[in-house]
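Let us work through a complete example step by step.
Step 1: write down the sequence.
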Amino acid sequence: MTSLKIIKNYINGEFVDSENYFDDISPVDGTLVAKVSEADEIIVDNAVQAAKNALHGEWGAMSQKDRSEMLNKVADEIEQRFDDFVAAEIADTGKAHAQVKNIDIPRGAANFRFFADLAASQNEQSFKMDTPDGKGATNIIVNKPIGVVSVISPWNLPLLLMTWKVAPVLAVGNTVVVKPSEETPSTATLLAEVMDTVGMPKGVFNLLHGFGPNSAGEFMVANKDVDAITFTGESSTGSTIMKNAAVGLKPVSFELGGKNAAIIFADADFDAALAGTVRSAFSNCGQVCLCSERVYVERAIFDKFVSALKEKAEAIKIGRPEDDADMGPLISKEHKDKVLGYFSLALEEGATVITGGSVPEFGDERDNGAFIKPTIWTGLSEEARIIKEEIFGPVCHISPFDQEDEVIAKANDSEYGLAAAIWTTDMDKANRVARQMEVGICWVNDWFLRDLRTPFGGVKLSGIGREGGIHSLEFYSEPLTICIKE
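Step 2: predict the structure and record it as tokens.
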């Protein structure tokens, strides 16, 4: 074991080992990336206690200005170690270089800068009020840290989505205990090294590795000294976490699954809609909660669009990051098996396979990886499981529609409600349809365009609460009203 890379937990400013390890496996070729130290219940409790103690130490006494400066130093150090973060993210996920270099790592650093600056710009609110004696009173609203926050982050955008939560948590003075996905422990561990380098006070940032049930994840959310929980992942896992959170009435913020619809009207800019749908269906191998797995195309351009999307999908280069591929593997062989199960189900339900529906054959070590072909189906009814269930792979089903009301009803007929994309050159129509979407975010003539100041989250099974901009700062703060009689 000593010759292998060992990834450890980080607690109270120290890297901590454990007795149990699990494997970090490359989805590109099935090789071992590292051995990861699994946190047991005692290690988890030590991390939570370190975070609790840090609230009342140097960090708790730090001014907002100094705290924001510290987070900007974290961003600086991520950028200094940019190549290390890129290599770590790619080793765990097999993603294409372009995505990791242009989106994942830059956005991870940007999250710290954005929330550091936003927190520094906030002012206390005050309200004057009249009183019967004529002297009046002043009410001051003070936003205090909520306390110890458990962050459980996913494997699809490991650094980006973890820092999306960690940055605002720290920006308003909380302390944090983080558990990244067991599939992607590497960039989180690099972030712990960054925290160490910039002199983050001990106990402010704590990192735990492990799984969910009967492991670090369950121990974290059940710990009585955790004050709030934020989670991104599957809806079923969110429900389980919520049951644990109910015991202590802990506030939760969940960004969960999606079965997102794209609506393409005949008057859309065809090339823009095509390019946007290629991105929204196949980006990151379809492993983005915002991806469009349901595509509705107005009948007048349906055949043309299906043909054009097929051509674009088949032109996607699949392979290793070093091959300058457009698309890498799924995150794991287990997830590959899940997606392949949906490939079989689609055939059972009567789908027409326009392209894909199988595994690429390379004739080399990549055949031991988790690669899968971009897949397009047509011909299924709206009641098919392929239409109802989140697959989380490079797939989409395309259906024709005739009327605006018809497609709105179909798009909203889902247990999920995270995102939608509408493509049309008629802005009156765009505004009318977008306002009827039962989702947290609706794009018009684009996809994945994000202003970090705006609220992000979903409805129905897609989540609880909103994060982003002031919405994040409000969730991770506890307002205190101080009423002063004059």
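Step 3: interpret the result. The two ends are 69 Å apart (CA to CA).
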